[in-house]
Amino acid sequence: MEANGKRKHDASGAQGSSTKRSKGGNQGKWMTPSHKAKIAAIRGRTLEVGDMGFWVTCQRQKEMRAADEILSLCEEYGQKLFGINSGATDKAAEDDDGDEPEDIEAAIEKELATMRSANKTKDSPFGLIRMNVDCVLFMRTRAPVDPLKLVQEICKDAAVANSRELLRSRFINKLTPITLTGKATEKGLEDLAKKVLSDHFRLADGESDANGDDDGESNACSYAIRPTLRAHSTLKRTEIIDKVANMISKRHKVDLKNPDKVIIIEIFQSSPPIQTFCGMSVVGKDWEAMKRYNIHELYSAAIKSAADPAEPNEPAEGEGEGENQA
C-alpha cells in the first residue's frame, strides 16, 4: 500500500470500489441487462393493421400509473356497457398509494402483472399496448366493445364528477377513440377513409352513407377534419386534410367552428421496428363540449363549476392551436 494510504487504481483507471453501484441508489433507476430485457419484452406489443381502440395520453413519466387507471376504467365500463367481466385490473395496483415504486424489481413485476391480466388471451376485449413515445398508450379493443361509446361514457361521467372523491384518474389526460387502423401511406389512408367515412357521409365516388339516403341535401351534414401526427413526417398534415376532404361529397360542407361531425385522424410511427399506422374515427359535435375527450380537463371544470356555480364551463383556451384543420 502507498504511504499516503490511498488505494491503487486498477488497470482501467477506476478506483477499487467505484465500479459498483447500489441497486437501491439513484431513486431505484438502476437496471441490469435482465431488467432491460424484461421491459423490452413488455413494450414489444405493437399495433396491427385492422386494430380498433383508443389512444391514451398521460402525464410524463406516469405511464405505468395511467395504465393502472385505464385498465380499471375499462373493467368497470366494459362490464357496465357491454356485460364484460374482463378482470383487467391488477388488484395489487389498486392498493398502492399512487407514488412511483422505488424498487425496479417491484416496478417490473407490477407492469408484468398488469399486462398479463389485461392480455389473458389474444381475443381479450381489452389489450394495453405500450408505445415507444413518452406519455402515450394505446388500448386495443375487440368486440363487443365499441371504443367510441366507451370513451364517451367515461367522459360524460367525468364531466359531472364535481368533487375530488368522484375522481377516477389522476394521471390520464386525453382519450381518443379509433374506429379502425390502417397503414400510414397514401393508399392506406384512402382505404381506411372509405371504410370509416362511408358509415357517416356520402362519398364523392358515389358510395351512399349509412342511412342509404340519395337525396342531394336531405341528409347533408357539416364536418371538420382534425389530424394529429406523432413521430411521423412522411404524410404532411395539409396533404392528409386535402385527401380526406376530396373523398367526401360536396353536399357535406366544411365548418371549422361548429361542425356536426368531426373526423379524427391519428398517424403514428413506432420504432423499432419502424411501422407507420393511421387511425380514424368520426365523432359528434359533443367532442368540443367534452373538451375533446380530455378527462383531466373535464374533472377540473366540474370541480371548478361546483366551487363557483355562477361561472359556466368554457372550452379550454388554446385547445388545438397550431393545427391545420379542415
Automatic annotation (TrEMBL):
<feature type="domain" description="THUMP">
    <location>
        <begin position="160"/>
        <end position="284"/>
    </location>
</feature>
<protein>
    <recommendedName>
        <fullName>THUMP domain-containing protein</fullName>
    </recommendedName>
</protein>
<keyword id="KW-0694">RNA-binding</keyword>
<dbReference type="InterPro" id="IPR004114">
    <property type="entry name" value="THUMP_dom"/>
</dbReference>
<dbReference type="Pfam" id="PF02926">
    <property type="entry name" value="THUMP"/>
</dbReference>
<feature type="region of interest" description="Disordered">
    <location>
        <begin position="1"/>
        <end position="36"/>
    </location>
</feature>
<feature type="compositionally biased region" description="Acidic residues">
    <location>
        <begin position="314"/>
        <end position="326"/>
    </location>
</feature>
<dbReference type="InterPro" id="IPR040183">
    <property type="entry name" value="THUMPD1-like"/>
</dbReference>
<dbReference type="GO" id="GO:0003723">
    <property type="term" value="F:RNA binding"/>
</dbReference>
<feature type="region of interest" description="Disordered">
    <location>
        <begin position="306"/>
        <end position="326"/>
    </location>
</feature>
<dbReference type="GO" id="GO:0006400">
    <property type="term" value="P:tRNA modification"/>
</dbReference>
